[in-house]
Amino acid sequence: MPTFITIGYGDQAGYDRTDPTVRDRAHAHDKQLAKDGARIGRAGQSVQARNPEGRGVQREYGTFMSSELPVAGFMLIEANNLDHAIELVADTPCAIAYGVVEVWQLKD
């Protein structure tokens, strides 16, 4: 079964303006995904790591990519195909609370 990594983007303002009943349903959906085997985690501080030509590790705190919304969390899921993966994440908190979820299929 293909594996997908998802990146959820969202902010507190979008979360706060979402109906609490909808948010509760989204959190219940996340709990069910986790129970079914998805690995879900909230985003912590990011660190960029580089090792140009193997001369020594350089690290810089902060994001490399930028977006309108901050990264909120990640999920690793198995799904039958891309459409199934999208269906699984469509009711997660970032997707329903004015954010967005990117879905990336991991290649073997």
Task: Write up this protein.
The protein is of the alpha+beta class. It has one domain: Alpha-Beta Plaits, CATH 3.30.70.1060. The protein is built from four helices and six strands, in the order E-H-H-E-E-E-E-H-H-E. The strands form two sheets. The chain has a four-stranded antiparallel beta sheet. Strands 3-4 form a two-stranded antiparallel sheet. A hairpin with a 7-residue loop joins strand 3 (47-50) and strand 4. The radius of gyration is 16 Å and the shape is globular.
Quick overview:
With 108 residues, the chain is α+β, with helices and mostly antiparallel strands. The protein is 31% helix and 31% strand. The model has no long low-confidence stretch (mean pLDDT 96).
Kindly list the characteristics that best describe this protein:
4 helices; 31% helix; 108 residues; Alpha-Beta Plaits; 6 strands; two-stranded antiparallel sheet; alpha+beta; four-stranded antiparallel β-sheet
Count the helices. How many? Answer: 4
CATH architecture label: 2-Layer Sandwich
CATH topology: Alpha-Beta Plaits
The count of domains is 1
Average pLDDT, all residues: 96
Q: Which word captures the global form?
A: globular
Largest sheet: 4 strands, antiparallel
Radius of gyration in whole Å, from Cα? 16 Å
- Overall structural class, as computed from helix and strand content, comes to alpha+beta
- Rounded to the nearest angstrom, the distance between the terminal CA atoms is 11 Å
User: Could you give the order of strands across the largest sheet?
Assistant: 2-5-1-6
Count of β-strands: 6
| N-to-C SSE string, H for helix and E for strand | EHHEEEEHHE
CATH superfamily: Dimeric alpha+beta barrel
Helix content range: 25-40%
Low-confidence stretches: none
Task: Report the portion of residues in β strands.
Answer: 25-35%
Protein name: Transcription initiation protein
InterPro entries: Dimeric_a/b-barrel
Organism: Microbacterium faecale
